[in-house]
Recover the amino acids of this structure.
């Protein structure tokens, strides 16, 4: 249970904005097609990872997550004059790469559950999970090659593949930084922002950029979407950090304080480290130096976060980037509907509960 | 020390055939260029993985392996009329993907040393090694994109990327099969051949196919090189199996019987399982059922392998595929020099000591 004293006023249970329903069927079909072949059991593991099967291989109804990355890619493509069909291979590829990274993340972080279900390595062992992740990464590539056939220009396909590869590399570099920073909680807010703009931001930025590249040849518009994506990536991850600390367990699938217990480099903690003074500073330093993080330590850290106003700071920073994201699009001359969609998306990322 | 009773007559210490020297500088430069950027420490880990740095980050002289895959790619390209420059991006990409797969293999197999040095996960921990492997996989992609710029046709670049992706997926599927078969030593020789033709064969087959695709537009010649590669892949892995059991520790970096101790599904063991009878069969079955594999068990398995002639069988099968590899090229109308080179390559793979 969240500590009410630490929460901002609670919001009613959220439904996803309409934009997440608009492309749901197309995205689901594209993803399923990309995994339609493959007899080896590893493909069943991947269908499980994508939420279509339960652990015994039975179909799960109403499955799948919100598919954020493909959705915003298609949104950007339509907003810039393209069609859903044109961008679907790239959109599917983004979701597959994202899911791949979660599979490997769970191995690295030794996370045994995700969305209330066992993670792949917890269920099938680490070697198979590692290979399954690599397999999904290739399936993502193959989905992308469909861009190149038969109509779309090969030149554009290569640009898209190039960008996605670069984004993916940036994402891995961010994961590497994240691992490197573990156990060294004194990172600056600038280091934190650099790390998350790579780890999480790269793929979100890429999703909007790719959508725009497929939708238009106007490089200024493409730039605007990239800038928008850069800001939205920060909004997304900062909100993720807040949810990882104060989110509702039933919604996020993580207990309150989960990311404190795991000593993750989240913005509230990074901020608190930089702002706390006196005994609070000593307390934080000693807790993060210590190997064990029990309930008492988590509560103590939550107390310091409240003292320094870490949650409010995080929300304020996210809100600023949310505004910047929408300002980036001012020059792109979008239709009123497209602007409305992008605004709905940005605000959802800022306040989402899951 | 190898047990002399189990060894075929010893050969003099081998030097690499001349073809491995022919492209060494070009391959080294292309690989180094592909890793020339990147400030994060993860790139230093990768330079270590490629044998250019020691564990402290100091340059290692005369470094690097034999670079089999890029060498045969360039060989095929030149043999079919192409230039080294045209095929270098693909060649470098092949080596990077191969090295990437070793990094992840070592994590999966819990191997702490490779070529007498600590493996990445043993030195820097598993999370960083996992990420380092993924990073190298992307660097490989990026090397490949160079094919598309500026002169080479985008269509061919996409075909090459597509093939490499497919080969890579096949390789992972083979790794998956290999893991799945662990602890179930009763696999058939057909299952074994299917597994290695994916796990190891795919990338070698791909190396020759890509070289030919870049060298010529003649689809019959490309087919001939693909068939040749299919056979050479089997030769390579069967020889690897033999070396993993009877190879000289000083040359291979593995103690004698290493792959028996680890219960790997190697051809000699698979063959012995299928051929042993009576008490030998029971002995093998009980040893492979058992969790622990000590020196006594390894010696006992080596004894059964000798009884059934497993080493000779493996060599005979490899020799047959070596012949088939060269026969595949009969229709390709290669120059006498190219035929000589390919013959030298095939025979080396059959009898190599490392």
């Amino acid at each position: 249970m969240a500590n009410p004293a630490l929460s901002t006023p609670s919001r009613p249970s959220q439904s996803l904005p309409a934009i997440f329903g608009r492309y749901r069927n197309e995205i689901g079909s594209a993803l399923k097609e990309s995994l339609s072949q493959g007899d080896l059991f590893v493909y069943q593991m991947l269908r499980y990872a994508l939420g279509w099967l339960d652990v015994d291989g039975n179909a799960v109804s109403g499955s799948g997550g919100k598919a954020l990355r493909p959705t915003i890619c298609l949104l950007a493509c339509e907003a810039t004059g393209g069609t859903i069909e044109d961008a679907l291979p790239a959109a599917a590829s983004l979701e597959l790469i994202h899911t791949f990274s979660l599979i490997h993340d769970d191995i690295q972080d030794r996370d045994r559950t995700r969305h209330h279900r066992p993670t792949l390595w917890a269920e099938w062992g680490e070697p198979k999970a590692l290979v399954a992740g690599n397999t999904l990464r290739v399936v993502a590539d193959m989905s992308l090659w469909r861009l190149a056939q038969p109509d779309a220009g090969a030149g554009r396909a290569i640009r898209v593949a190039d960008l996605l590869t670069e984004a993916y590399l940036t994402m891995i570099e961010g994961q590497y930084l994240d691992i490197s920073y573990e156990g060294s909680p004194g990172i600056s807010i600038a280091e934190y922002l650099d790390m998350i703009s790579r780890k999480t931001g790269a793929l979100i930025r890429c999703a909007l950029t790719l959508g725009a590249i497929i939708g238009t040849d106007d490089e200024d518009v493409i730039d605007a979407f990239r800038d928008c994506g850069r800001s939205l990536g920060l909004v997304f991850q900062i909100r993720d950090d807040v949810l990882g600390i104060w989110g509702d367990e039933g919604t996020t699938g993580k207990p309150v304080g989960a990311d404190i217990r795991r000593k993750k480099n989240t913005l509230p903690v990074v901020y608190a480290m930089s702002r706390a003074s006196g005994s609070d500073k000593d307390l934080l330093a000693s807790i993060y130096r210590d190997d064990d993080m029990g309930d008492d330590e988590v509560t103590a850290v939550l107390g310091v976060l409240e003292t320094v106003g870490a949650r409010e700071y995080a929300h304020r920073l996210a809100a600023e980037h949310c505004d910047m994201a929408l300002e980036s699009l001012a020059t792109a001359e979008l239709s009123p509907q497209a602007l409305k969609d992008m605004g709905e998306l940005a605000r959802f990322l800022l306040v989402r509960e899951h």
In short: Confidence is low (pLDDT under 50) at residues 1-12 of chain A.
